[in-house]
Specification:
Length: 810
């Protein structure tokens, strides 16, 4: 936009200086997005110490503890004992949890730990929640052991605080009001400064579908009271603790968060994105029950997620400290707050810039987006009056700017497909790689390549000013769209568009001084530079390289805002290279991209510290006594090929997944398999009156079985489960299960006496059900050799599973 206004030598220096300033801001901002330094066990008693929390973690999170396992029972007993030692009233809430998805109903016996501490003058309940079960593939030191250990350390710090306040009360007694003060202390039970009721909820069965939280919401009286919820999770083993989700009307909650915690992290774009995704945590059913609240997680080094490497050894102590410091600070702040006032009339936008949490109310989102559009219109009008652009050329620039945005996404996704083809083991990791930094840099380089391939050929045809102004139309338009559809994410586009448009206006109004004009353009792009690191982390670490197009889009939009500064050195480049400049710059970008991909392939290899994932399961058809090893790996490694040799779908029992599986012969173990008995069958659909069938089954599976899965050859419209000591639990089911069976019912932690399971299906003359008794751990199979170092079980839920099947025609 300033191409005719500054002489070439000075503009080159000024433009490069402006870009370097912005690059420095990006680096400084990225460095500020770190975790906290962990405090040792010798830290002051009133502070949160990762060292002390780690001692608890070592006691209960050194082994996998899936729902219903002996390790889960040991963890439950330890946690109950520690909470009671900190003066809390503790109960174990036993129930059957349930959930449904497309064609699927899941049930499971859960044991939630509910610890309470009454407040001295409550205005409501503060609930701190995390789940103490882990995935079957690993010990879950981060997911979610770190949060549970942080709860124990938080409970200890609160007890210390109460003890100190009670001591202060004793001193006041000695000064003249002993009897009244003593009576007051007895009335509040030594609760110290906690005004509100406090509940620590450690749920069970989260990994199987938030079963514990669902049962708590459905059955427990504390769930009906509602309150303010703080839920804690992890999707990796490191990184800062991010507030990534809130309930609706979060203005006062965000204000409390920003003012209470020592190092707030997260932004409202994460909230909007998570609300759109199908993912859920315990936060989802609890908020659905009426709680308001905030959800926290750290998400870096996510290649360890749900594997044996989610271990204490790999846990970032700084992430544990960040989790716990925020937990303690928020519990103290909310413990003394007037909780009904924390529900406001709307959401706020929040994000972090240079160490400061910036917030503004939702009613400003629309006006800011409109202001960005108006500022861009003003810039175009001013540039037109200066003879730099015409409206048709600006429109052409805006239309053509779709090309680099789309191309950057295509290139990033294409890179991932090529990586998977070259290294099939990446496919089992779902884009969550051990050392993805070189690939992430390649995503940024591909965004740059897309921008250069668009900008340089069209620069002379449309004009640099028209291209720059047209390019700003997209962040301005996206900001306006988000203001309507996802207000918390509007700032991602609105602020860069507004800043760059205002910077361009100021640059055109200033005298012909390159320093001041470059300063104006650089200042306009500051918002982009300061927002980029967190947004890139959210896209690349949160979604992984399998969805690398999201990260490429972030980089491409950022690049569009830099066009005026990038334009400044181009005339000198073109004079030196002539027409070759349009080819040289993209060629350099291609070379950089290829080099980064090659570096990634060289650096991100597999070794004992960075293991490869492999999938293996054992399937025994109890009807025929034929057993098979099964692997879903695209290209099994040598260890897996000890057991599988080729794809033989016909060798698998009915009802078992078949597409693309490797199989191999296996010895038959001694196992009777699950038993299914028809207790009743109705052909009128029962209470539904829909003309379908209702079939009630007794399902048993013997000892040491973690659960049973029923795969049905008809869709399921509903299911009910009941076990001794617990009433029936019913869920409605919609849709059809993907795969070779349209309906499926799971029961986790099946009791030895079995369960009654009622299926509601469309009218059928014959119903085929394959029952699968499931036990984790392949060591019971003769000839099994454990994985060598450098290999871990994949995150597939049927990995390391011993499955014994029987098929019934009902």
């Amino acid at each position: 936009m300033t191409g005719k206004l500054i002489d070439v030598p000075r503009r080159v220096v000024a433009g490069v200086a402006g870009l370097l300033v912005l690059a420095g801001m990006v680096v400084l901002t990225a460095m500020g997005e770190s975790t906290m330094q962990p405090l040792p066990a010798s830290a002051p008693a009133g502070e949160f110490s990762a060292g002390r929390a780690l001692e608890h973690l070592e006691r209960f999170a050194a082994e996998p503890r899936p729902l219903g396992s002996p390790a889960s029972d040991r963890a439950r007993d330890y946690l109950v004992g520690r909470l009671r030692a900190e003066g809390m009233r503790v109960e174990v809430h036993r129930a059957v949890g349930a959930r449904s998805a497309a064609g699927l109903a899941t049930f499971g016996r859960v044991e939630n730990i509910v610890a309470t501490l009454p407040g001295r003058d409550p205005t409501g309940t503060v609930m701190v929640a995390a789940h103490y079960d882990s995935a079957a593939m690993g010990p879950g030191a981060s997911d979610d052991g770190a949060a549970v250990a942080a709860m124990l350390e938080t409970a200890r710090a609160l007890r210390v605080q109460r003890d100190r306040e009670d001591t202060q009360g004793d001193r006041e007694d000695a000064q003249g009001e002993r009897e009244d003060a003593q009576g007051d202390r007895e009335g509040r039970g030594g609760q110290g400064n906690l005004r509100n009721d406090l509940v620590f909820l450690m749920t069970d069965g989260e990994e199987d579908g938030v079963l514990g939280a669902e049962a708590f919401v459905r059955e427990h009286p504390l769930a009906r009271k509602g309150g303010v919820l703080l839920n804690w999770e992890a999707r990796g083993v490191g990184g800062p603790s991010l507030m990534f989700e809130t309930s609706r009307n979060n203005a006062r909650l965000v204000e409390t968060f920003a003012g209470a915690v020592p190092h707030p992290r997260g932004d409202s774009s994460m909230v909007e994105l998570y609300r759109m995704l199908p993912n859920n945590t315990d936060f989802t059913p609890l908020v659905g029950a009426g709680f308001t609240g905030m959800n926290f997680a750290y998400i870096e080094r996510s290649s360890r997620y749900h594997t044996a490497d989610d271990s204490i050894a790999n846990l970032d102590r700084g992430s544990l400290q960040h989790h716990g410091s925020n937990m303690l600070a928020l519990t103290r702040a909310l413990g003394g707050a007037a909780l009904p006032t924390l529900v406001s009339g709307g959401d706020v936008t929040y994000f972090r810039i240079l160490g400061t949490m910036v917030t503004y109310p939702g009613h400003l989102v629309g006006p800011l987006a409109a202001l960005a559009v108006l500022a861009l219109a003003g810039l175009i009008l001013l540039a037109r009056r200066r003879g730099l652009v015409s409206v048709p050329r600006v429109l052409a620039g805006a239309a053509s700017a779709l090309l680099p945005l789309g191309l950057s996404v295509v290139l990033a996704q294409g890179m991932w497909e090529l990586l998977v083809a070259w290294r099939p083991a990446y496919d089992t990791m779902g884009g969550l790689l051990h050392r993805p930094q070189a690939y992430q840099a390649a995503v940024a380089a591909m965004a740059g390549l897309a921008l250069l391939s668009w900008y340089l050929p069209l620069r002379r045809r449309i004009g640099p000013a028209a291209l720059a102004a047209g390019a700003l139309a997209w962040p301005a338009a996206l900001g306006a769209l988000c203001a309507w559809a996802a207000p918390g994410a509007s700032f991602v586009f609105t602020l860069p568009a507004l800043g760059c448009a205002l910077g361009g206006i100021v640059a055109l109004l200033l005298p012909r001084s390159p320093v001041w004009r470059i300063a104006a353009l650089t200042s306009g792009a500051v918002a982009s530079a300061l927002l980029l690191p967190a947004l890139a982390r959210n896209a690349l670490d949160g979604m992984g390289l399998a969805l690398g197009g999201a990260g490429a889009l972030v980089f491409a939009v950022f690049g569009l805002t830099l066009l005026p500064l990038a334009e400044l050195p181009l005339p000198a480049l073109r004079r030196g290279l002539g027409r070759r400049a349009a080819v040289a710059a993209p060629s350099v970008a291609v070379a950089v991209t290829v080099s980064l991909v090659g570096l990634g392939l060289a650096v991100d290899g597999f070794d004992e510290g960075h293991p490869r994932r492999t999938h293996l399961a054992y399937v025994l058809n109890a009807d025929t006594r034929v057993a098979r090893w099964v692997s879903a790996d695209a290209d099994p490694v040598g260890w897996t090929r000890r057991y599988v040799s080729g794809r033989d779908a016909g060798a698998l029992p009915p009802g078992y997944a078949r597409g693309g599986l490797w199989t191999g012969p296996a010895p038959a173990i001694r196992a009777g398999g699950p038993r299914v008995t028809v207790l009743s069958r109705s052909e009128d659909g029962g209470d539904a009156g829909d003309g379908g069938d209702t079939v009630t089954l007794r399902v048993t599976a013997g000892r040491a079985v973690r659960g049973v899965t029923l795969r049905v050859d008809h869709p399921i419209t509903g299911a009910t489960a009941a076990v001794a000591g617990s009433g029936p639990v019913t869920v409605a089911v919609t849709g059809v299960r993907a795969g070779t069976w349209p309906g499926e019912v799971r029961f986790r932690d099946l009791p030895r006496g079995g369960a009654e399971i009622t299926l509601r299906v469309p009218r059928a003359d014959r119903l085929r059900v394959t029952a699968i008794a499931e036990t984790y751990g392949l060591s019971t199979v003769p000839g099994y050799v454990p994985r060598p170092p450098g290999l871990v079980a994949s995150t597939r839920e049927d990995g390391d599973l011993v499955a014994v099947t029987r098929t019934y025609d009902l």
